[in-house]
Amino acid sequence: MNYIFKDKTIIVGVTGGIAAYKSADLVSKLVQQGADVWVAMTAEAAKLVTPLTFRTLSKNPIITDLFSEELASISVPHISITEKADLIIVAPATANIIGKMAQGIADDALSTMVMGSKAPKLIAPAMNKNMWDNPVVQENVSKLKTLGYQMIGPDTGWLACGDEGIGRMAEVQTIISRAIEIIEASKDMSGVRILITAGGTREAIDPVRFIGNRSSGKMGYAVARAAVERGAHVTLITTPTQIEKPSNCKIIEVETAAQMKQAVMIEAKRCDAVVMAAAVADYRPVQKFKGKMKKLSSRVKIELHKTDDILESLGKNKGKKVLVGFSLETSNLIGNSKKKLASKNLDLVVANTDEAFDSDSSRAYFIYDDGKIDRTRLVSKNDIAGKIIDFVAGKFKPQNREGSHLKLLSAASCMQK
Question: Annotated catalytic residue: which of 161, 249, 271, 414?
């Protein structure tokens, strides 16, 4: 028999929603498919379904208290168990656990294990429809998506409280299908070296002021996390941002277009693919003022000089590399993006408008070198990042990758090198 989850460790987090009874079926089916399942329960969940039920199904101790005698033989259980985990599923996920995960609170066994794991995280919310619609809950869900947590559901239907509407936990088989996608795709970039740029460059006018742009860096960071999660060796060249640095990748920090080019041209030599998500300034001041310019005149002339085109340089020396660029246009989006694709010798250009600035979501056109164009609806930048990594991965193992995404894997948290 082909066990889908053979040699895989899956942590199932069960919280205090009435849908906790469905989690017993989830654990049973995961075990039947070969998974080594460890169940972490909140105190509230243990009042709805007994830990003995999950122990019987999983054949492992149930984690309700990290200091219980049952776990005494396991050294630092919230670390040793999570380190070997290939996936964490929280089902059902109440508003409470969603809030804890979003705010970095680790005050019980489950939340501590989630915080301590670098494994992909699949969250299946289940709650009353009014709770789900609460702006605070939606803000927490949005934050988790930005951080790379995958959400599945909730579904619409009859709720335990007697209401009808959105709030039902996703069906067990649907959760398992998503888990299969995550496990199968989790390391499909293994051995591939990818260079990613992020953020907007800054060109100094004086020690205080600079010419810049509105790029937040969110897109490049999402691509980096997606690539790390799928096993790639990632180098991220980034300008200053307010985003937490992704881990398990090499980080190079730059500020100007010239610094960006120098780093890119060095690192690109040892990479198989380059994703240029950074917004590089087209012009820089010819001269930087030594001191802060004083407001002495109603008009100031600053002479600008064109910066080097990094993407063009990469395209001229492309070789067998996969080269992905971005195009942001305020008019003639498709036409201008097609010109960029051709002139820079790109394999793919991801085109969007200025609505993408500083947003967690975007609409994008994927324009390929074979003439094909895909358009996404308004989706998270994590979803777009996943589709980009699907494309890059497909260039190396095309038989395994054709059109598998817009279901981005959870982003790995990673350690800065």
Answer: 161
